[in-house]
């Protein structure tokens, strides 16, 4: 058996492996790998928990968004109803105003008609009194004439009032 380089390389390898086994390097490597695996597992658990929390928040925000949209739609509908009501009230007030103004105008027209009729009657009475005075003056003497005229005027005034 020759002591060549292969033999010494094999002996060095065996000694190296014995030292590694004596120093418990494989156990240390296994422990480090186990620690790393445990850290990775913890990170995965944390990521899973954060994902579930994020999904819960997303669901909650989706519900809030839907509620906000519903509230906004309700506000728009309420504003529309209020605007329609205000328009209806304004229309009713304007119609009432027009009706009151029309009634007032009709009252003024009626009053003007009554005033005109009364003026015509008064003028007719004045003309009739004057005509009666002239007729009676032609038929009676002055003293009888004045007495009859005064009684006629008093009688006409009493009937008119």
Automatic annotation (TrEMBL):
Location (main, coarse) = membrane
The record's InterPro entries line, in alphabetical order, gives: ATP_synth_b/b'su_bac/chlpt, ATP_synthase_B_chain
Give the residues annotated as coiled coil: 30-96
Topology versus the membrane, per the UniProt entry? Answer: Single-pass membrane protein
Key word Transmembrane present in the record? yes
Q: How does it assemble?
A: F-type ATPases have 2 components, F(1) - the catalytic core - and F(0) - the membrane proton channel. F(1) has five subunits: alpha(3), beta(3), gamma(1), delta(1), epsilon(1). F(0) has three main subunits: a(1), b(2) and c(10-14). The alpha and beta chains form an alternating ring which encloses part of the gamma chain. F(1) is attached to F(0) by a central stalk formed by the gamma and epsilon chains, while a peripheral stalk is formed by the delta and b chains.
Protein name as catalogued: ATP synthase subunit b
């Amino acid at each position: 058996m020759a002591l060549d380089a292969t033999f010494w390389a094999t002996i060095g390898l065996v000694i190296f492996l014995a030292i590694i086994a004596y120093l418990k390097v494989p156990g240390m490597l296994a422990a480090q790998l186990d620690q790393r695996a445990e850290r990775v597992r913890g990170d995965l658990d944390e990521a899973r928990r954060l994902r579930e929390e994020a999904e819960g928040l997303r669901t909650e925000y989706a519900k809030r968004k839907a509620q906000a949209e519903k509230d906004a739609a309700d506000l728009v509908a309420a504003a529309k109803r209020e605007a329609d009501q205000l328009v209806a009230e304004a229309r009713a007030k304007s119609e009432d105003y027009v009706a009151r103004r029309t009634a007032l105008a009709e009252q003024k027209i009626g009053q003007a008609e009554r005033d005109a009729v009364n003026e015509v009657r008064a003028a007719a009475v004045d003309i009739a009194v004057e005509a009666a005075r002239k007729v009676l003056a032609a038929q009676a003497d002055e003293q009888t004439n004045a007495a009859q005229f005064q009684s006629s005027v008093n009688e006409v005034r009493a009937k008119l009032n």
